[in-house]
């Protein structure tokens, strides 16, 4: 059985953060390091009935920098976004000298499950890259494929998302998607199947594909959806989160360690899902390193 993975939570004075960490600790997944105001963390823990046995608390006025420092020092193997603003955490993560850069595009990938349809797929980039260029999209796609493979899809089907399935000169994302599809067919991206541009209905629903008479192995069966920009990805993922019967969790990729990364408004269950995903990715990377 794997040993618990140490995780530094930036901004721990929050019920959902502490409840998720406690649930993950009880399951043997993590060893929590909670970073922030010690008195506030203890007060919130007492109010919500979370015992802090097995927790470490780091007192600081700068929880983002302190949590990142724990990872860099090797005392934590994972980072968790707690009750802290995204810009504050990203400044610490992306700091050129003291952050978690790893020479790749840093982005958020969400694992989404639509419960009634038993349908699971990844969505990227839902939180960081505002308007990625073609080379950045390629790196996001490759990293997302790695996540999908870790989650059990040996040859992930990747949908390059747009508002339409045809190339439109005034819509640059359709041109990018068409070019990446061409390059995939030429063998540039082994280990996955890439198709685009595809609208959401075509990437998600086989029924829509039948009605529109659009073919392809990705249509209606996408394991991963790579969006053209932050606006389209973020609006889509939040629309699903708040209107559909679903489960989800998110992490940052492109960093030197997985970062459990979702919204401050998220529930305990969503934070736990994000921790589970981060732990799984970390253990898979560790296993690969040991085998090589």
Which strand-content bin applies to the residues? 15-25%
Q: Which stretches are poorly predicted, pLDDT < 50 over at least 5 residues?
A: none
Strand arrangement in the largest pleated sheet: 3-2-1-4-11-10-5-6-9-7-8
User: Distance between the terminal alpha carbons, to the nearest Å?
Assistant: 21 Å
What is the total tally of β strands? 11
Give the C-alpha Rg: 19 Å
Helical/strand content category? alpha/beta
Architecture per CATH nomenclature, i.e. the level-2 architecture of the largest domain = 3-Layer(aba) Sandwich
| Main sheet overview | 11 strands, mixed
CATH topology of the largest domain: Isopropylmalate Dehydrogenase
Indicate how many domains the architecture comprises. Answer: 2
CATH homologous superfamily (4th level) name of the largest domain? Isopropylmalate Dehydrogenase
Shape: elongated
H/E series, N to C? Answer: EHEHEHEHEEHEHEHHEHEEH
CATH class of the largest domain: Alpha Beta
**How many H/I helical runs?**
10
State the helical fraction: 40-55%
Task: Quote the average pLDDT.
Answer: 95
Model description:
With 292 residues, the protein is of the alpha/beta class. It folds into two domains: 1-102, Rossmann fold (3-Layer(aba) Sandwich); 103-254, Isopropylmalate Dehydrogenase (3-Layer(aba) Sandwich). 42% of the residues lie in helices and 20% in strands. Strands 3-2-1-4-11-10-5-6-9-7-8 form an eleven-stranded mixed β-sheet, sandwiched between helices. Strand 5 and strand 6 (119-124) form a beta hairpin. Helix 1 (15-26) crosses helix 10 and helix 3 runs parallel beside helix 4.
């Amino acid at each position: 059985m794997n040993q618990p993975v140490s995780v530094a939570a930036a901004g721990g004075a929050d019920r959902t953060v502490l409840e998720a960490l406690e649930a993950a600790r009880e399951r043997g997944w993590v060893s929590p390091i909670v970073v922030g105001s010690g008195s506030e963390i203890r007060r919130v823990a007492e109010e919500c009935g979370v015992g802090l046995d097995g927790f470490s608390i780091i007192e600081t006025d700068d929880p983002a920098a302190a949590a990142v420092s724990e990872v860099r020092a090797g005392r934590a193997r994972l980072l968790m976004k707690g009750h802290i603003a995204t810009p504050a955490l990203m400044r610490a993560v992306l700091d050129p000298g003291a952050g978690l850069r790893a020479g790749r595009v840093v982005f958020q990938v969400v694992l989404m499950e639509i419960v009634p349809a038993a349908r699971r797929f990844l969505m990227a980039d839902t939180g960081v890259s505002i308007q990625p260029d073609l080379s950045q999209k390629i790196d996001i796609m490759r990293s997302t494929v790695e996540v999908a493979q870790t989650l059990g899809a040996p040859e992930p089907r990747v949908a390059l998302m747009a508002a339409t399935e045809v190339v439109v000169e005034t819509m640059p994302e359709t041109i990018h998607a068409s070019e990446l599809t061409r390059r995939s067919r030429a063998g540039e991206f082994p280990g996955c199947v890439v198709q685009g541009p595809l609208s959401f209905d075509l990437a998600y629903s086989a029924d829509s594909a039948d009605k529109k008479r659009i073919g392809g192995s990705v249509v209606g069966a996408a394991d991963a959806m790579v969006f053209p920009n932050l606006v389209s990805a973020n609006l889509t993922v939040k629309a699903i989160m708040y209107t559909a019967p679903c489960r989800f969790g998110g992490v940052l990729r492109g960093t030197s360690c997985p970062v459990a990364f979702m919204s401050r408004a998220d529930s305990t269950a969503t934070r736990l899902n994000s921790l589970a995903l981060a732990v799984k990715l970390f253990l898979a990377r560790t296993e690969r390193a040991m085998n090589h």
